[in-house]
Structure formats: C-alpha cells, structure tokens
Amino acid sequence: MSLTIGSPAPAFSLPATDGREIGLAALEGRKIVLYFYPKDDTSGCTLEAQAFQSLKKDFAAADTEIVGVSPDSLKSHDKFRAKYRLDFALASDEETRMLQNYGVWVEKSMYGRKYMGVERTTVLIDRDGTIARVWNKVKVEGHAEEVLTAAKALP
C-alpha cells in the first residue's frame, strides 16, 4: 500500500513508551510526525532519533507530536530512550500490522539475502488526520529540519 497525500491516515493504536497506548484517535487535533525506522540503537536510527530530539521544542511550538515507530519491543525502546535521553514517544509494532498498513514493511536485500524490514519513511499528518506529506527512503542528514519546516507550514 502506498500513502497518498490528502487521504486519511490509516488508524492505529500501539503500545508506546511511558506505559501508554498511542493512536491516531488520541492525537486528533494535533499535527503528527510518524517516523518509521528499522531498529533501535543502530547508527542511522540513532542519528535520526537524535535529530528529532534536538528539534523537539520547535516541533512542540508548532503543535506537532513526534512518534517513532519500529518493530522493536517496548523493552528495547525503553533502553534506547534512556541511552540517548529521548523524550518523545516510541511505539512498538512487533506484529508489523501498522507498518504494513502504512506500506513501510517491505522486502529488502543485503548481500544477496532477501528479508522483510522497515523502509525508513516519515509521514506528516495534519490536525484532521489527513496525510499532508510523505518522505520515502529517508536520508537522515537534514531530514528532521525538513520535516519541521513542513510541519510549521501546516495550519
């Protein structure tokens, strides 16, 4: 499934850090940055998380919630958050249902071996739950800044 700008974001409800459940309905009325990443505590994923963390106050000023999503467990997320002092939600989709609904659970290949994994993707959702912007195959450098600019431009 590919996400279409202007279409409703697929509903979700996932366990998240801080012992809470996080979902589209609970965040309604706020802008949401969903960033999908492959694995906690790997180099690219750490740099991406740190970039979003460094801009968290700016996202909050733009009334935008940051939510990281990966198939890692909550225990893994908690360690990752503590190690890098991340204070935004990380949601766990161990069953990959949401990842599949958002079209980011894809076949990948490394050294000729095929496997399923997360394609680094970011989705900006407006206050009405509509997809405002999608970044596929994200390159980490400068990405969080670009997402912040887009979030600020939304009413």
UniProtKB/TrEMBL annotation:
Lineage, broadest ranks: Bacteria, Pseudomonadati, Pseudomonadota, Alphaproteobacteria, Hyphomicrobiales
InterPro entries: AhpC/TSA, Peroxiredoxin_AhpC-typ, Peroxiredoxin_BCP/PrxQ, Thioredoxin-like_sf, Thioredoxin_domain
Domain of life: Bacteria
Catalytic residue positions: 45 (cysteine sulfenic acid (-soh) intermediate)
GO cellular component terms, A-Z: cytoplasm
Enzyme class: oxidoreductase
Protein source organism: Microvirga ossetica
Alphabetized Gene3D superfamilies for the sequence: Glutaredoxin
Protein name: thioredoxin-dependent peroxiredoxin
Cytoplasm among keywords: no
Known role: Thiol-specific peroxidase that catalyzes the reduction of hydrogen peroxide and organic hydroperoxides to water and alcohols, respectively. Plays a role in cell protection against oxidative stress by detoxifying peroxides and as sensor of hydrogen peroxide-mediated signaling events.
Thioredoxin domain boundaries: 3-155
GO molecular function, one term: thioredoxin peroxidase activity
SUPFAM superfamilies, per database record: Thioredoxin-like
Keyword Disulfide bond: yes
CDD domains associated with the record: PRX_BCP
Assigned keywords, A-Z: Antioxidant, Disulfide bond, Oxidoreductase, Peroxidase, Redox-active center
One GO process term, biological-process aspect: cellular response to oxidative stress
